[in-house]
Structures are given as structure tokens and as C-alpha cells.
Design goal:
Elements: E1 12-16, E2 28-33, E3 46-60, E4 65-66, H1 79-87, H2 91-96, H3 103-115, E5 131-132, E6 139-147, H4 152-167, H5 178-186, H6 193-197, E7 206-210, E8 213-223, E9 239-248, H7 254-269
Parallel strand pairs: 1-3
Antiparallel strand pairs: 2-3, 2-7, 3-6, 4-5, 6-9, 7-8, 8-9
Length: about 270
């Protein structure tokens, strides 16, 4: 059979992971680059995936609900006066004020009137109603564990370095002045206008698949390297517990939740 030399070459798949033996694959998380739509993409012409066991993974969804009508009650107009009326603390003040005419009768009537305010409040279901006021992106906090049985470089160092590469900007321009870049462009520089205005490149968007659920696209908000971790005789780490803070690129709705988690779980169970 003749081989078509012009046939596009299949991208190489690279898996960076520790040797986890018989550990369930559902307990091992996979991290890989994706585009803004969460579709997997190549990294340096290769499909690269970093796998790690996770310690204490947690997903946190914060929903901002506010009560905009809280300040609509009468207590907000004269807070001190209404607090004294509701608590009964205003009674000694009224008793100390001399009334015209029959003082005893006047004081008794005032006392009865003031007693009606005690234990009352201006809060209602209406002015305590909450309204949805948006939400930040979903947060994921995990500790990615790498440990070596045979080769610390390939089982620990390389997977961690790859995560760090994805977390850091692809490139930061040396010249920070927009004016300098614009002048160079006018002088006939080889940079286009987009590169002139935005000279640096953002970090890589990634996805995380764990226990049959895929979260994408994600950004790495923080990553740590515990330098006190054990090493071998060459100085290579033999174990790293890497703290990671991830976040979705945008806030999500129920369709995003169903698309990225529930459907994946069902499809995996049906196989």
C-alpha cells in the first residue's frame, strides 16, 4: 500500500504523570490546554496532559444575593429615635419632661402610648426580599500530588514544570510603554498594531477532568511549589504537593453545569 506523504501528521500525545499503580483513574485528575470554548487544543504541536492525584479538592460557587429594600423601613430615617421607642428606653426621658395641665394624667397617657411601640419592628417580608446580583467565576481549590517511584524528573519535575508553564504568561514584552511601541510602528517596525497595543501574551487556558467531570475552560489563579519537599541525591524533587487555585473563565449558569459535569458522568456510566 502506498503511503501518502502529504497526509497530515497526527499530533503526538504526551502524558506527564507519576506512576500510580492500581489507583482508580477516577481519583487521578487530568489537566490539559483548551480554547475559550473548552475544546482541547495542541500545545507545542502535541496533545499534552498532566495527571495528578488530588488531595482535598473543593469546588466553591458564590452567589451574590442582596437586600436592596433593607433601608426602606422607618428605622433608617431616625434610627436612634425608633431604637429607643422599640426598646422602651425613651420612657425615662418622657417621665422627666414636665407636662402642661394634669401632669399625672398626661404621663399615664404617654406611657400607654409608648408601651405600644415596645417589641415592634418595621421590617417586613417586602423590605427583606433578596435579589440576585450576579456571581463571580466558580473557584476550585486542590492540592495536586506528584511522587516518584523510579524517575523523579519524569514523574515529578516535568509534570510540575508543565503546570507552571500553563500558569505563567506565554510571554511578557520587555518594552512596557505603549508610546514607545507606537513610535516604533510609525517608523516602520515589523510589529502589527495588535502586537503594538497588546505586546504580551496571556497564560494558557486549561481543563480539569476529575471523577468523570470536566471543568473547562479554567484559569490558574495561583500555584505553589513547596520547596521543603524531599529530594534525591541530584536535587530533584521526589514528591511535591502542589497547591492550586483554579477558576472558571466566566460565571456559569445551569446549562454550563449540566454540560460540563452531569452529561459527562452519565456518558461514562453508560459505557
Amino acid at each position: 500500500m502506498a503511503i501518502n506523504q502529504n497526509q497530515p501528521k497526527t499530533p503526538e500525545a504526551v502524558e506527564l504523570t507519576s506512576d500510580w499503580g492500581g489507583l482508580s483513574p477516577h481519583l487521578i485528575a487530568s489537566f490539559y490546554p483548551v480554547d475559550r470554548n473548552g475544546i482541547r487544543k495542541k500545545y507545542n504541536d502535541k496533545y499534552v496532559v498532566v495527571k495528578a492525584a488530588l488531595v482535598d479538592p473543593n469546588l466553591d460557587v458564590t452567589l451574590n444575593w442582596q437586600s436592596p429594600f433593607e433601608q426602606a423601613g422607618p428605622e433608617t430615617k431616625a434610627p436612634t429615635l425608633f431604637a429607643m421607642l422599640q426598646s422602651g428606653a425613651i420612657q425615662p426621658i418622657v417621665d422627666a419632661i414636665p407636662l402642661l395641665g394634669d401632669g399625672s394624667t398626661g404621663n399615664a397617657a404617654a406611657t400607654r402610648l409608648l408601651q405600644q411601640f415596645e417589641g415592634r419592628t418595621g421590617i417586613t417580608k417586602l423590605n427583606s426580599v433578596q435579589v440576585f446580583n450576579g456571581m463571580p467565576p466558580v473557584k476550585l481549590t486542590v492540592t495536586a500530588l506528584f511522587r516518584a517511584w523510579k524517575d523523579p524528573v519524569n514523574e515529578v519535575e516535568r509534570p510540575f514544570d508543565q503546570l507552571m508553564e500553563w500558569a505563567l504568561p506565554v510571554e511578557l514584552a520587555k518594552d512596557s510603554s505603549l508610546l514607545v511601541n507606537a513610535v516604533e510602528k510609525v517608523r516602520g517596525g515589523d510589529k502589527d498594531w495588535i502586537e503594538t497595543v497588546l505586546p504580551s501574551q496571556s497564560p494558557t487556558l486549561i481543563a480539569m477532568t476529575y471523577k468523570g467531570r470536566t471543568y473547562a475552560p479554567l484559569v490558574i489563579e495561583s500555584i505553589g511549589q513547596p520547596l521543603a519537599s524531599p529530594i534525591d541525591k541530584t536535587g530533584a524533587f521526589v514528591e511535591l504537593a502542589v497547591p492550586l487555585s483554579l477558576a472558571t473563565l466566566t460565571a456559569i449558569d445551569r446549562q454550563d453545569w449540566s454540560r460540563t459535569t452531569l452529561n459527562n458522568v452519565r456518558s461514562n456510566l453508560s459505557r
